[in-house]
Amino acid sequence: MGFDEVTFFGTIVKTHGIKGHLVLRCYDNFKCKKNNPVSLFIKEGDFLKQVAVSEIQFTYPFCRIKFSDVADINEAETWLKKEVYIEKKVMLQNEIPYKYQLIGCSVTDSISGPIGNIVDIAEYPQQQIAIVNANGKEVLIPLNKNFINAFNSTENNLAVTLPDGLLDIYLQ
Question: Most CB within 10 Å of its CB: which of 45, 84, 97, 112?
Fold first, then answer.
């Protein structure tokens, strides 16, 4: 499995209990096609190692996970700070596209036209905010399903309809 077929899922941050459960800090609020992913991938150097998942419980931004290979807390501690990846094909499409899909894509407003490219996504408890580079100026755009018209992954473009005056705050 290559890095082009997977996306960053999160980092293992701590152990949970004595039976080998781990806590993963999720990068995004992923939704899977099946109830739970059957396997995930651990980054080991420049390679990905596939590991079977026996239990997983999502509570964004964390998930509690149990790998089949991990029997107790001592084994679990060797997995700390490892990067975990998930196959792109097992994820469902969200109303709001995933972070890995948005970073680098262009943003076009239905009224103002092209705005710029998304350079980062900021996480807030209420919602995500796209940080857009608009001709050298930073524009913050709420990633709210009411503002997003369409996301075209082939053209790498996010079409939005922004509230009146939002762009004027940043571009004047």
Answer: 84
